Amino acid sequence: MAPSHALKCCTRALNWVPVLFINLVVGWSYYAYVVELCVYTIPNNAERISYLVIFHIFLAMFIWSYWKTIWSRPASPSKAFGLPRAEKELYEREERAEIQQEILKKVARNLPVYTRTAGGAIRYCDHCQVVKPDRCHHCSTCEMCVLKMDHHCPWVNNCVGFSNYKFFVLFLAYASLYCVVICATVIQYFIKFWTKQLPDTHAKFHILFLFFVAALFFISILSLLSYHLWLVGKNRTTIEAFRGPVFANGPDKNGFSLGFSRNAAEVFGDQGKYWLFPVFSSLGDGHSFVTRLVHIDPEQANSVLQQNGKRLVFPADGEANTCVLGNNIQRTADDSKEKSDGSQIVAVAGTSVNHDALSQEHQHLWSHSPPSF
């Protein structure tokens, strides 16, 4: 037991090495920029002060979002997704996989769970002993199930998921802007040192190296930022980009996409004043999500929805809007949502429905009983 405990402690300590490296680089860049560039190299006070103000604004936002990403504990499934005591005892005693699935299906009837394994089974974590909510995955490094898990990032030594994904995207954005500010303000002195227009001083090495490091970091971070902004626009996680979530009608990478504006609001919130700040403003609770079923015809949709007790709203001919309900919030899918050739876009809702709205053509209502599997 002692060697195992010591090994875990060593592993946890080593996991902080990338974070320490980032902080050392940022600390050195601060010294090189403030002291070597602004104090010793720039002769004009107005230029020096303006550079320092801009630099510290972007540095503060970068550090704020970075440490919010690190210290935000990953959100895990609530106790409602755990097996009740009786079902848990039955599940643990049972050795046959098909019977275990029947037990999980019985429990999942009362939960907002619509995704499955590749084989169509209920997603269950034996380690955490919970039915996995949609988009939830187990992280072997954090040793826990993480809601809307995107990936485990070694550079923040934390899982990136529902609780801190907005902070992570802002961290990448402000890190890119921090590098841009350095490159844009250092380049003229970089050229002067490179062409020997300025005398060789102890500041030369710092300024030359500062420009190269900032440029390299900018290129690498920008590519990662671009990828995650694309994921935000598609309402996908990194895991879902590689392996689409599986619904009752099969895998569908666009199953959670509601159009660009709705997808962005799900991560950044519906109040623009909070978008640029690393404060939590993401929509929902991380346990359930508005879901679309795409590439299925109405007859197939009817069969699916009769099985899970949910509502479909098919757009009437010539209409561009589809009513979407979920997380106890009514939303309207915008005109820019994706449509496939000759296929209906289906909105799956898990909330109550206004019965007066059922008179329009192509709208169908099923009972509000929990889904059956």
From TrEMBL:
<keyword id="KW-0812">Transmembrane</keyword>
<dbReference type="GO" id="GO:0019706">
    <property type="term" value="F:protein-cysteine S-palmitoyltransferase activity"/>
</dbReference>
<keyword id="KW-1133">Transmembrane helix</keyword>
<dbReference type="Pfam" id="PF01529">
    <property type="entry name" value="DHHC"/>
</dbReference>
<feature type="transmembrane region" description="Helical">
    <location>
        <begin position="167"/>
        <end position="191"/>
    </location>
</feature>
<dbReference type="InterPro" id="IPR039859">
    <property type="entry name" value="PFA4/ZDH16/20/ERF2-like"/>
</dbReference>
<keyword id="KW-0472">Membrane</keyword>
<keyword id="KW-0012">Acyltransferase</keyword>
<feature type="transmembrane region" description="Helical">
    <location>
        <begin position="49"/>
        <end position="67"/>
    </location>
</feature>
<protein>
    <recommendedName>
        <fullName>Palmitoyltransferase</fullName>
        <ecNumber>2.3.1.225</ecNumber>
    </recommendedName>
</protein>
<dbReference type="GO" id="GO:0016020">
    <property type="term" value="C:membrane"/>
</dbReference>
<comment type="similarity">
    <text>Belongs to the DHHC palmitoyltransferase family.</text>
</comment>
<feature type="transmembrane region" description="Helical">
    <location>
        <begin position="20"/>
        <end position="42"/>
    </location>
</feature>
<dbReference type="InterPro" id="IPR001594">
    <property type="entry name" value="Palmitoyltrfase_DHHC"/>
</dbReference>
<feature type="domain" description="Palmitoyltransferase DHHC">
    <location>
        <begin position="123"/>
        <end position="242"/>
    </location>
</feature>
<feature type="transmembrane region" description="Helical">
    <location>
        <begin position="203"/>
        <end position="230"/>
    </location>
</feature>
<keyword id="KW-0808">Transferase</keyword>
